[in-house]
């Protein structure tokens, strides 16, 4: 019976990132690892093409396949006041899933063995785990490995005090005249109609003077229907941005749970969870890609040193506690979300805010950033969070 060194379930950002990184290491006493990568067969439900955005200092490992990058960001308040700033030495980067996948698959090497099958069960064992799957024709497939990393989404968010949904739809728009500044991206445009609880905003990621990804996003409990997203995007592009004539070449849509629930990255003696299922998503922002990269780097270091490759939760307890207060304040309606975010970026250096949102800030700087938050609603919410017990999400999105 063949036993793989690693078996990765799922070929999204987490699965492919781990396969790409682990294929180039040397395992103590083993050498080059033999890796099985299992993903759904053609025709099975899978995520549509999407974009991932993140920011980092200087050059990064994915720079050669970026769709775009920006060194200047702006936030627009509900009144139209614009706060723009260079974020150097950081850059805000956009990566399209198709480009990422093509890049990774072309460089994984002979040690990665790909299987198209739907995983139905994982049997954990003392010295190995076995993954049971079925191929497109219904025939069974069983694969055994010393370590299994499962990157499939959870069927439901974990029990939490608060679970909001970051849900969005975006258009790739083309205009007949110059309408965008390709050197600057709009991170949050808060001139959208605001929900009673939560927050909504648009954002604009220019790809050229005549092309941009324009998205409408909400942090609320429930998603919109198709008509709701289309109406919001039509209003944002026409009434807020003033785009009179444009064509839509493609669209994207998604839902990201934003929860203060606890995630477990260990699912068994030989089975681990990664990616969004392993807590890589930052609860207060929905950004996941950078968290995945930190998880992958930690797992690879552990494998190289012969240690337990337990993926870490890539966000500190302090940051998660602050995120829990923000989510609850938005969901309770105590906090005016649009005013809060506008104030946050207007009164702080944007680089400090980005460091905080990426979990790279120190306590002293965080206290200065936190001092710009409204005291009463955040204090009341902090007390509520201390006494509120986690609960299952009442209904699916």
From TrEMBL:
Question: Which keywords, in A-to-Z order, does the entry hold?
Answer: Signal
From which residue to which does the signal peptide run?
A: 1-21
Q: Which domain of life is it from?
A: Bacteria
InterPro entries from the UniProt entry? FAD/NAD-bd_sf
In the UniProt record, does the keyword Signal occur?
Answer: yes
- Spell out the Pfam families in the cross-references: Lycopene_cycl
Give the protein's recorded name.
Lycopene cyclase family protein
Provide the species name. Streptomonospora arabica
């Amino acid at each position: 019976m063949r036993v793989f060194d690693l078996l990765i379930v799922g070929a999204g950002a987490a699965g492919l990132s781990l396969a790409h990184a682990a294929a180039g290491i040397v395992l103590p006493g083993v050498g080059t690892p033999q890796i099985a990568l299992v993903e759904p067969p053609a025709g099975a439900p899978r995520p549509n093409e999407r974009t991932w955005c993140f920011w980092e200092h200087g050059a990064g490992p994915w720079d050669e396949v970026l769709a775009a990058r920006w060194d200047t960001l702006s936030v627009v308040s509900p009144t139209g006041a614009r706060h723009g700033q260079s974020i150097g030495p950081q850059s805000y980067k956009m990566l399209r899933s198709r480009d990422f996948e093509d890049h990774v698959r072309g460089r994984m090497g002979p040690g990665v063995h790909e299987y198209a099958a739907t995983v139905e069960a994982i049997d954990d064992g003392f010295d190995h785990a076995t993954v049971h799957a079925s191929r497109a024709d219904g025939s069974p497939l069983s694969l055994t490995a010393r370590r299994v990393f499962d990157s499939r989404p959870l069927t439901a968010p974990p029990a939490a005090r608060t679970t909001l949904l970051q849900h969005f739809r975006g258009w790739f728009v083309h205009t007949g005249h110059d309408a965008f500044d390709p050197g600057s991206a709009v991170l949050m445009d808060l001139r959208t109609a605001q929900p009673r609880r939560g927050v909504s905003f648009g954002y604009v990621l220019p790809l050229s003077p005549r092309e941009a990804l324009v998205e409408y996003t909400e942090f609320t409990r429930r998603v919109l229907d198709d008509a709701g997203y289309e109406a919001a995007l039509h209003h944002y592009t026409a009434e807020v941005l003033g785009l009179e004539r444009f064509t839509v070449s493609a669209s994207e849509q998604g839902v990201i749970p934003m929860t203060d629930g606890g995630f477990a990255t260990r699912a068994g003696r030989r089975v681990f969870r990664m990616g969004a299922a392993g807590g890589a998503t930052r609860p207060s922002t929905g950004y996941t890609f950078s968290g995945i990269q930190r998880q992958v780097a930690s797992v690879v270091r552990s494998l190289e040193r012969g240690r337990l490759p337990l993926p870490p939760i890539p966000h500190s307890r302090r940051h998660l506690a602050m995120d829990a207060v923000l989510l609850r304040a938005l969901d309770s309606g105590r906090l005016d979300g649009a005013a809060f975010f506008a104030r946050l970026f207007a009164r702080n250096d944007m680089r400090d805010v980005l460091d905080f949102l990426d979990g790279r800030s120190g306590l002293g700087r965080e206290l200065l950033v936190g001092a710009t938050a409204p005291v009463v609603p955040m204090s009341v919410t902090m007390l509520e969070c201390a006494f509120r017990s986690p609960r299952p999400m009442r209904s699916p999105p």
